[in-house]
């Protein structure tokens, strides 16, 4: 899943993975889980990654690619895989294609979610998450029943450190500079599916599934079975 921070990749991944029967790997979630490793017990790479994440910057390609490589089993999952927040640079996309080839598999499609920039800023600044169960709320569009308390597990909701105003602008700039070129990378290799992501989350999920199904039909119509087996 591709798209700017705040577009709803994580929310859609949670909905799509069970629908498609795939496993789900979120590089952002893996880094956030690293935050609970106590000081002094983190590897230097994890410390560097967490520092970049707090500032809203991208983690270096080497660290991210190594981290995905360590989880390559996920790419061989029988039901397929869904990657959320990876790749984010052309270097990561190229490394992913090589890694997939090594694993005897491939990427069928890159789903690119788009929304207006102002919507992104509103979504990011109002987002609150539950550190215990990862549920996501929004102070205006999806408020919890009790202010500051998770509906699902009663955990105390927090604002992600990188959802503060300074980090949001750094993240959007990093996206413009590093991730936008990926759109061309996947368009040129005929794997880009563009989804308008403004509206209710269920509608966006249905839109994505419909587009994936259509894509599968197109692929069969082209009869190009050897080049790209349909896995949806
Ligand atoms: P996310 O939850 O996907 O918004 O990711 C949160 C943060 O983790 C990002 O702002 C980056 O600091 C870091 N991160 C996650 N995935 C990547 C990636 N593929 N490349 C570089 N940094 C990443």
Task: Write up this protein.
With 232 residues, the chain is mainly alpha-helical. It has eight helices and six strands. It has helices spanning 9-20, 27-34, 44-55, 61-70, 90-102, 117-126, 165-188, 201-222; strands spanning 23-26, 81-84, 110-114, 127-129, 136-138, 192-196. A two-stranded parallel sheet has the order 1-2. A hairpin with a 6-residue loop joins strand 4 (127-129) and strand 5. Helix 1 (9-20) packs across helix 8 (201-222) and helix 4 (61-70) packs parallel to helix 5 (90-102). The radius of gyration is 18 Å and the shape is globular. 26% of the residues are buried. Mean pLDDT is 89; it is low at 222-232. Adenosine monophosphate binds at residues 5, 27-28, 31, 52-53, 56-59, 64, 85-88, 92, 162, 171.
SSE diagram, text form:
Layout: H1 9-20, E1 23-26, H2 27-34, H3 44-55, H4 61-70, E2 81-84, H5 90-102, E3 110-114, H6 117-126, E4 127-129, E5 136-138, H7 165-188, E6 192-196, H8 201-222
Parallel strand pairs: 1-2, 3-6
Antiparallel strand pairs: 4-5
């Amino acid at each position: 899943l591709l798209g700017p921070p705040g577009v709803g990749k994580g929310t859609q991944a949670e909905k799509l993975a069970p629908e498609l029967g795939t496993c789900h790997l979120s590089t952002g979630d893996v880094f956030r889980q690293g935050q609970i490793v106590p000081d002094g017990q983190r590897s230097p790479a994890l410390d560097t990654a967490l520092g970049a994440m707090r500032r809203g910057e991208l983690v270096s390609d080497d660290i991210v690619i190594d981290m995905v490589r360590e989880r390559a089993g996920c790419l061989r999952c029988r039901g397929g895989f869904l990657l959320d927040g990876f790749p984010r640079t052309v270097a990561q996309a190229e490394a992913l294609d090589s890694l997939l080839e090594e694993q005897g598999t491939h990427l069928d499609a890159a789903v690119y979610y788009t929304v207006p920039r102002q919507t992104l800023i509103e979504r990011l600044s109002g987002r609150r998450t539950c550190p215990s169960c990862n549920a996501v709320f929004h102070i205006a569009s999806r408020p919890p029943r009790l202010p500051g308390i998770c509906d699902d597990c009663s955990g105390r909701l927090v604002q992600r450190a990188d959802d503060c105003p300074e980090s949001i602008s750094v993240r959007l700039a990093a996206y413009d500079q590093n991730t936008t070129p990926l759109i061309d990378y996947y368009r040129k290799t005929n794997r880009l599916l563009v989804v308008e992501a403004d509206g209710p989350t269920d509608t966006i999920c249905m839109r994505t599934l419909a587009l994936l199904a259509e894509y599968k039909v197109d692929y069969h119509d082209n009869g190009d079975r050897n080049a790209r087996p349909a896995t949806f």
